[in-house]
Design the sequence.
């Protein structure tokens, strides 16, 4: 569940501080699929996607383009029934949504472990392997690693990297170590060198500013729109958060109240949003 670059059809809204908050259509589609399609064994009519995302100001053209692009990338499959086209989840998309859902709802955004176990990963790739280098860095960031030095990444916990290395075919180019900090090495300093702590904190503070108010998204017409915007914004935050041990973070770390808020709002919106979905979705068995 990872896309960060801006698109021409990106949906934008402005928070109370005047900051523009943009959501790519694919982010919104993934939020919708993870909450209302995953596990139901159905394909959804393209027109239902259009109805859902019209609530968020996403144009029909942008929705159709996003669905087509996701199908071409192997995230959705298409099936025609009469004159209608239905989209279902591929196994690859299911894996992405399950993994992302675990990060969004099943895991705390902070690590409460207080032990000093670290994982170091070093790699050396040929200069021409730009795609492999990008893929490795992306997977390491998602797994909670941060760059300590060029070619040396660190995670302040024990991380099993075998699936990352094996799936990318980099076993001959990667070395992994379990480590403990020695004398004259400060854990907080290491964390601040390897991660953008202030950037992470700023993201959570902005989230609280947008959502911890009586009417957080006044432009949203109903709880379905509110829920999808909430999930998309939370997804963007969580996918960049390495879940650092709380013991190494500032005492007022804003991720803690932000997580409580997102859970409370999710519970508040979910019931009505599901009723709306049940009324507007046209589905066939997958």
Sequence:
């Amino acid at each position: 569940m990872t896309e960060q670059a801006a698109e021409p059809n990106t949906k934008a809204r402005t928070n109370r501080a005047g900051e523009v908050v943009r959501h790519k259509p694919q982010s919104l589609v993934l939020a919708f699929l993870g909450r209302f399609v995953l596990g139901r064994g159905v394909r959804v009519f393209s027109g239902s996607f259009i109805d859902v995302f019209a609530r968020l100001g996403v144009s029909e053209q942008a929705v159709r383009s996003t669905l087509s692009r996701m199908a071409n990338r192997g995230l959705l499959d298409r099936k025609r029934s009469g004159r209608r086209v239905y989209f279902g989840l591929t196994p690859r998309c299911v894996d992405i949504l399950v993994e992302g859902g675990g990060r969004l709802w099943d895991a705390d955004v902070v690590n409460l472990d207080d032990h000093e176990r670290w994982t170091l990963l070093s790699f050396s790739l040929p200069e021409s392997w730009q795609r492999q280098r990008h893929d490795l860095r992306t997977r390491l960031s998602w797994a909670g690693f941060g760059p300590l030095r060029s070619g040396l990444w660190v995670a302040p916990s024990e991380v099993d990297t075998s699936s990352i290395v094996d799936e990318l075919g980099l076993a001959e180019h990667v070395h992994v170590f379990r480590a403990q900090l020695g004398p004259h090495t400060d854990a907080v300093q290491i964390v601040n060198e390897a991660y953008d702590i202030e950037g992470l904190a700023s993201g959570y503070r902005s989230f609280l500013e947008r959502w911890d108010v009586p009417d957080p998204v006044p432009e949203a017409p109903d709880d379905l729109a509110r829920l999808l915007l909430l999930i998309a914004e939370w997804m963007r935050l969580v996918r960049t958060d390495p879940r650092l041990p709380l013991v190494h973070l500032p005492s007022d770390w804003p991720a803690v109240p932000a997580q409580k808020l997102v859970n409370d709002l999710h519970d508040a919106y979910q019931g009505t949003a599901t009723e709306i979905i049940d009324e507007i979705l046209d589905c066939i068995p997958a």
Notes: Confidence is low (pLDDT under 50) at residues 1-20.
